[in-house]
Amino acid sequence: MEEYNFFVGQEFPDVKAFRNAIKEAAIAQHFELRTIKSDLIRYFAKCASDGCPWRIRAVKLPNASTFTIRSIDGTHTCGRNANNGHHQASVDWIVSFIEERLRDNINYKPKDILHDIHKQYGITIPYKQAWRAKERGLAAIYGSSEEGYYLLPSYCEEIKKTNPGSVAEVFTAGEDNRFQRLFVCFHASIYGFVNGCLPIVGLGGIQLKSKYLSTLLSATSFDADGGLFPLAFGVVDVENDDSWTWFLSELHRVLEGNTECMPEFIFLSDGQKGITDAVRSKFPSSSHAFCMRYLTESIGKEFKNSRLVHLLWKAAYATTTIAFKEKMAEIEEVSPEAAKWLQHFDPSQWALVHFKGTRFGHLSSNIDEFTKWILDARELPIIQVMERIHSKLKTEFDDRRLKSSSWCSVLAPSAEKLMTEAISRASIYQVLRSDEVEFEVLSADRSDIVNIGNYTCSCRDWQLNGIPCSHAAAALISCRKDVYAFTHSFTVASYRNTYAEGIRYIPAKLEWSKTDKSSMDDNILVVRPPKLRRPPGRPEKRMCVDDLSREKHTVHCSRCNQTGHYKRTCKAEMINSIEQF
Question: Quick check: pTM over 0.90?
């Protein structure tokens, strides 16, 4: 504590520096401070403990802002015990303590603030005080939540100004223009999706944790190398059926304006009713499937059995109905309750063998990967979340464009690897030609029929994944066809088209032409925050709406045939033992 020892004649740059120093000393040395006189030219305080003679007096030097200590009387005779808190440890003081830490780590938690203050100063502050200090500190560094909503119209204009062809719109509700929804889709994302991505769209939402309630909705896809490609995103005050219908309506409008004929897409989601109905309404010719990552995580949490998760993945990837039925039978053998639970999910919406169309090898969406981009920014104002996404998009587009410029193969690396393996295995097959397009391919343990005109193989790998399987490769090589000519979605050319258009730089908010409140007129949109504030405590877990109405599995005892408990907790066994005794 030597750095907090004062002496007569000690000088400080100004009165504020002296006040901060005396407050730090009081907290560090565990004594309460009572200020007797404090203004711009003098400061007089004493120890607040009864009977303690310690006093300090400081004054401002003439013709300067410097403050100097004139006298220090007595020494502390108090117990100096402030372990349960300290009056000088105000929210403002905590903000000054955590500000640099917050700049380095946005997710600096209140419990960590409590720990660090206790470790350094030996005092305990209330959790709520630490939480308020963090909220105030974030506002000091990144701006307030209210300012974030106020700047949204200006930010949308900057997006459209710097990235022509982009869509950025903010929607309000009520006469006082409360924030309701925001939709953003950059021109580079639209162009890349239409001209190079796989026709797969993942849908999902993540709760934002700023001062006001809101949810980030997003639509993502896959590039030719299987990488995450964010297509569009939006923020809504409430996630419900209406907000998903609105989001997909905006997405449909964007795609319709940039394609001559709307393609058929495959939408992947957690299967909540609002998304399913919105896809059916806005994209009637497209397919909708369950995200397998969501489905396997759900069955794992429901039945706490890793073998069930493994078998479900095997069933999903099965390429024949026989193999699918075998895995489903194994699931029922392991847990009849799990098999019954799975009946709520139509296999045509998650199993490859029952899905109508090509999945291009993707059974899960990459929404979780996208949400990782903004996980550490969820507590920031909405404008900061948008800027985080824009910054990440710009970096990824630039890096991937540069990376692909050195590729010399026909296919993107991940597809090139699969093709090389298929060609290698094809070398040991025997091929019998039936006609111009149909072949029988014989391997050591099976026979497969390949039709190069329809891009099909009886093993179903070709039509399910979009890349010629080893049987197809053998047939194509036997008739001297270029195997690579039968793969269109995974080419390096498609990958380069995906990132051909760059995400342009958006100036910092200080450079924006902020609207002057004194010059506002009726045509200027002033966005105010939603009325609902985020309640204190841990937010509720986001779940599929259908989970609420889905029947929960009931545990069953194999000893007494009753429900509600397992064999090892069966009370009937205990009663029988007592009676026998």
Answer: no
